[in-house]
User: Which sequence fits this backbone?
């Protein structure tokens, strides 16, 4: 969790630099974690209020799920950096090296897999935010909307990170399968995020 132990200032400075990581995927995971945290905040502002006693159990369940999902997304910030570094090294292998295609294929696959995990986690986050929007305190409902926007942005950004890796894959069948999974996540969860925001 080295990335998540950096200060916000340090993380952003490294993101702005030419360092290979953090990059777009890690930033997407972090933005997704922020979106989940906003939902969790709605839950914390709702729990214990007599007006919302009827949905107390639902809110507490959402909070538990949100805490676990936020931790997962924080881990994916680190996982994205770990997956990208081998790819960065693979690009440095001379083009006439017979080992290059296999090393590059493995690195591209790993570099696409983590953003797909980020996308799936952001989809789960959007589903949680639907619950917060529907049952949470009306005084904090805008935070559920903000969370949905953050998670949508993270979902789409991670999708872009899938595409940028799959377009370079020699195995076009594998690339198409990964692109299909990403497209399905976008198709399902972008409208749901928009509905929460609306």
Assistant:
């Amino acid at each position: 969790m080295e990335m998540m132990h950096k200060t916000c200032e340090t993380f952003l400075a490294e993101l702005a630099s030419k360092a290979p990581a953090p990059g777009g995927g890690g930033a997407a995971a972090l933005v997704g974690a922020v979106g989940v945290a906003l939902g969790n905040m709605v839950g914390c502002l709702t729990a214990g209020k007599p007006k919302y006693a009827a949905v107390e159990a639902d809110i507490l369940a959402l909070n538990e799920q949100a805490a676990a999902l936020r931790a997962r997304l924080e881990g994916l910030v680190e996982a994205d950096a770990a997956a990208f570094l081998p790819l960065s090294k693979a690009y440095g292998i001379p083009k006439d090296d017979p080992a290059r295609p296999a090393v590059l294929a493995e690195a591209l696959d790993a570099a696409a897999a983590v953003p797909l995990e980020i996308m799936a986690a952001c989809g789960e986050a959007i589903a949680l935010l639907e619950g917060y929007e529907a049952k949470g305190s009306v005084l904090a409902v805008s935070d559920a909307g903000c969370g949905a926007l953050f998670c949508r942005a993270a979902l789409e950004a991670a999708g872009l990170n899938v595409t940028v890796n799959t377009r370079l894959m020699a195995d076009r069948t594998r690339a198409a399968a990964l692109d299909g999974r990403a497209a399905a996540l976008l198709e399902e969860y972008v409208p749901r995020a928009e509905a929460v925001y609306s």
User: Anything to note?
Assistant: The chain has a mean pLDDT of 95.
